[in-house]
Amino acid sequence: MTNENNIKNALLSAQNISVTLGNRLILNDVSISVGAGDLKVLIGPSGAGKSTFLQCINQLIPTDSGSIYLEGERINMANNASLCHLRQNVGMIFQDFNLFDHLTAVENISLALRKVRNLSKEDANDRARKELNRVGLANRAGLYPAQLSGGQKQRVAIARALAMDPKVLLLDEPTSALDPELVGEVLAVINDLAAHGMPMIMATHQMDFVRSLATEVLFMESGSIIEQDKPHVLLASTSKSRTLDFCSKLNNLRQVAEHSPEITCTANSNT
Amino acid sequence: MDFFDITFLTQEVIPHLNDGILDSLALIIPAILIGGSFGILMGIVRVFAKKPLKIIADGFVAVIRGVPLTIQLMILYFGLPYIRIYLSPYTAALLAFIFCTGAYQSEYIRGALLSIKQGQIKAGQALGMTKSQIIWSIIVPQAIRRAIPGCGNEIIYLIKYSSLAYIVTHIELTGEAKIIASRTFRPTEVYLVAGCYYLFLITIATWLLSKLEQKLSIPGFSKANS
What is this model's ipTM? Predict the structure, then answer.
């Protein structure tokens, strides 16, 4: 009963999703729902299935079983029009940006506005420039992806997703392909979205961000959600959660890097 | 009789070869344009179309690539009349060249289409674009840029194998050269000049192709700019 209410009240809900690849179970009966103002965070070791789960939510990866509901309506996954409708309403940000390499920043944003929303070229470009302005890149409109830094690419990707007026945003480790000094500019944009109440599901290991903004943390391991609660509960210093254990390892790593100059030096010379 | 007698060249060889080069161009230019478009379409079908269509296209390419062009020309011009299809020498040659260049071009295009990263497709899907919108607005424009060097190579081959048209009695550059050579018994000079004509055509084609490549170049797609 509560489950049904969850689905009805949620903007977007993925229920009992399972995926197998060959003989391997990649996702084992996982569910998530987002409502207005929610920022749900997926945490877990690599290979846990976070990325697969996110891509199942907008059906970039087909599921073996389970269902997706957009505003309470069940999506017919065998119907292409229905899938396009789902994807138009659910924006996605990828770890490695996936900007269209042959288009400028502004064209990257206006393409889907023209093709999917059927806007005229001028209207689409106007809207694209507004979105670029919003992520602080108005002066980079005419540059190609190869001419942008990683942080700028990710901000263009966010602008591209926002231009479609998504009801929910999925973010797949949006800062993990970035140099440390570029993470801040992307997180600032995401912070701003969260402040405006954009519902989001995000895979990330930026724990400060998670602590301050997440409404719920889901810890994944081997294709299952094994812990799920508010961040202050899971990350309380007295908690014996797997999440805290995992995050303290992340923190230890960072401290080691900060306190031993040799490691920092090698890290810098590599970049 | 001097070797490389200027009057022989200017009075006999050059006027005839000038006629011949026009006949060659009348074959080469449509073959590049029609064959090229055909190749792009075939490449797309071979990568993205559903099974039955894909099998037909793959089979067509296998046959065209597997049979010598000379034999294809013979079949089109000397063979088809047996089933009451009569082609003029020009049509037979043009058709053979379109099929041949289309089949080879489709292979370059196919390779380029397959080289486009999966992430580009996923990004298009995530924005709600349909499969055909993704193919035509995202994949093909990128693939064509990657395929230009290979496709240019095929165009240069085409210019040279157009010289086979004379075997179905379409008299173009090579045909004219053969006629003068056998009439005057001075093959060395005639074929040397004809060779220079082909070299000239290919130099122009190479220059045009590099202009095209520059015009379509985008930062991140070629070494020079990235």
Answer: 0.88
- Hunting for tokens 């296998």 — which residue is that? B62
CA angle B119/B124/B127 to nearest 5° reads: 125
Measuring CA to CA, which residue among B164, B47, B145, B156 is closest to residue B94?
B164
Distances A157 to A105, A111, A135, A145 between C-alpha atoms, Å: 9, 13, 10, 10
Beta-strand runs (E) in A2-74:
12-21, 24-34, 39-43, 65-70, 73-74
Residue A247: band (very low, low, confident or very high) from pLDDT cuts 50, 70, 90: confident
Q: Reduce the DSSP state of residue A153 to 3 states and report it.
A: helix
B208: closest CA of chain A, how far (Å): 22
Reduce the DSSP state of residue A219 to 3 states and report it: strand
Q: Which CATH architecture has domain B6-217?
A: Orthogonal Bundle (1.10)
Q: How far is B122 from chain A (nearest CA, A)?
A: 7
**Sign (positive or negative) of CA dihedral B80, B83, B87, B89:** positive
Amino acid at A99: L
Distance CA A4, CA B151 (A): 57
Report CB contact under 8 Å: A55, B133.
no
- Please report the pLDDT score of residue A181 as a whole number: 86
Q: Which helix or strand (DSSP H or E) is residue A73 part of?
A: strand A73-74
Q: Is the pLDDT score of A263 beyond 50?
A: no
How many whole angstroms separate alpha carbon B167 and alpha carbon B69?
11
Q: Which residues pair with A219 in a beta bridge?
A: A43, A227
* pLDDT tens-digit series, residues B37-60: 999 999 999 999 999 999 999 999
Kindly report the pTM of this predicted structure. Answer: 0.85
Q: Which of A98, A101, A160 sits opposite B122 (nearest CB)?
A: A98
Q: What is the pLDDT of residues B126-144, one digit of tens each?
A: 999 999 999 999 999 999 9
Question: Among B127, B145, B223, which would you mutate to test the A interface (most chain A Cβ atoms within 10 Å of its Cβ)?
Answer: B127
